[in-house]
Amino acid sequence: MNVPAVFSNAPGGEDLIARALASAINAVNEADRKREQEALNKLPNILDCQNMQWMQNCTEINNQAKQNPTAPLRVTNPQGIEFNFAPGTPSAVIKLQLEQTPEAAAAMVTYMDTTWGEYKKSADLYQQAMWRRGPLDNILGLQRAQALEDQVKQFDASQLSVSVFVHSQCGACEVQLNSYAQLQQRYPRLAIRVFQVDPDQDAFTRKVTDRGLAGRVLNPQEAAQIQSTGISALPVTWIDNKKQSKRADLKGTHTLAQLEQHLQAMSLINTAAQ
Question: Which residue range(s) make up the domain with 205?
C-alpha cells in the first residue's frame, strides 16, 4: 500500500532555532548601532548643518568626522569649490571658509578671543606654580640654560680633526666660518682646517686667516678631486675620528652647539670601542 507523502509549511525545530538566533543577533547589532549613535550625538558637530542647506550630506559628514577624528575633512562650499581641512580644524575656521559671511567672521573672532583668553589663564597658572615651587631639579631657567650652553663640552680633541670646505662667494660658508672661529677659540687643541675650492687668495685671507682659522686654498686639481667625491653644495664639514677611522659628513650650516654635539658623538666612538 502506497501512502502519499505529506508536505508541511510549518518550520521545523532547526529552522526555529536559526530564526531565533538571527533575530537575537540583529537585536544585538541594532542595540550596538543605537549606542554608537547616542555616543556620537553627544559629541559636538563639526558642521552647522542648519546653516548649510546646500550640503545635502551634512549630517553624514558630521557622523563620519566623529567616527574618524584623525581623518581629513573634505567638503564643498555653496559654489562647489572643494576644501580639505586637517583633522582637528576648529569648527569656526571651517564655518568661515565655507560660508564667508560677516556672521561667520564674527564667530571666528569670538572663538579666537575666547581660546587665547583660556591659553592666557593656563599660562598664568603655570607661571604662578613655577614661582611657588622655587628652584627646580631639571627644568632650567633661561640663565641656567644659557650657562650650561656656554660651558666647554667634554670630548677628546686630540683624536679628532675637522676639515671644512668652502667657496669665497658662498654666503652660507661665511656664516659657518663664524661658528668655526668660535669653536676654535673655545677648543684650541682641536685641529680645524679650512679648504677653499676657488683660487681667490685675498678672500681666503679675509674670511679664513683673519678669523684665526688655519687652512689653505686648493689647487684646481685638488678642487676637482673634492668635487668628484660627490660634494655639490657648500659648505661641507668632515669630522674624522683618527683613531677609529670614522667620519661624520656634515652638509650645510650648523650652530656652535650642533657642532659640539657632533664632536662629542665622534669622540665617544673611542670610548665605545675600548
Answer: 155-273
Helix (H, G, I), strand (E, B) or coil at 247: strand
Q: Higher model confidence: residue 208 or residue 72?
A: 208
Using one digit for the tens of pLDDT, what is the confidence trace for 69-117?
A: 888 888 888 888 888 888 888 888 988 988 889 999 999 999 999 999 9
Which pTM value belongs to this model?
A: 0.51
With respect to residue 178, please indicate whether it lies within any of the assigned structural domains. yes
Which secondary-structure segment (H or E) carries 131? helix 102-133
Neighbours of 187 (CB within 10 A): 19
Residues 118 and 159 in one domain: no
DSSP state of 240: E
For residues 127 and 160, membership in a common domain is answered with: no
Nearest-angstrom CA–CA distance, 172 and 154: 28
Domain boundary among the residues 98, 131, 164 is at: 131
C-alpha–C-alpha distance, residues 127 and 263, integer Å: 36
Using alpha carbons, list the distances in angstroms from residue 117 to 110, 127, 169, 204: 11, 15, 49, 55
Q: Residue 143 has what pLDDT?
A: 67
To 10 degrees, the CA torsion angle through 258, 261, 262, 268? 180
62 and 114 housed in the same domain? yes
Give yes or no for residue 118 having a pLDDT over 90: yes
Cα separation, 235 vs 193, in Å, equals 13
| Grid cell of 26 as nine digits | 540583529
CATH code of the domain covering residue 218? 3.40.30.10
Please say whether the beta carbons of 31 and 24 come within 8 A.
Answer: no
Q: What angle do CA 122, 128, 134 make, to 5 degrees?
A: 135
Cis peptide before 235 (omega within 30 of 0): yes
Residues 186, 87: one domain?
Answer: no
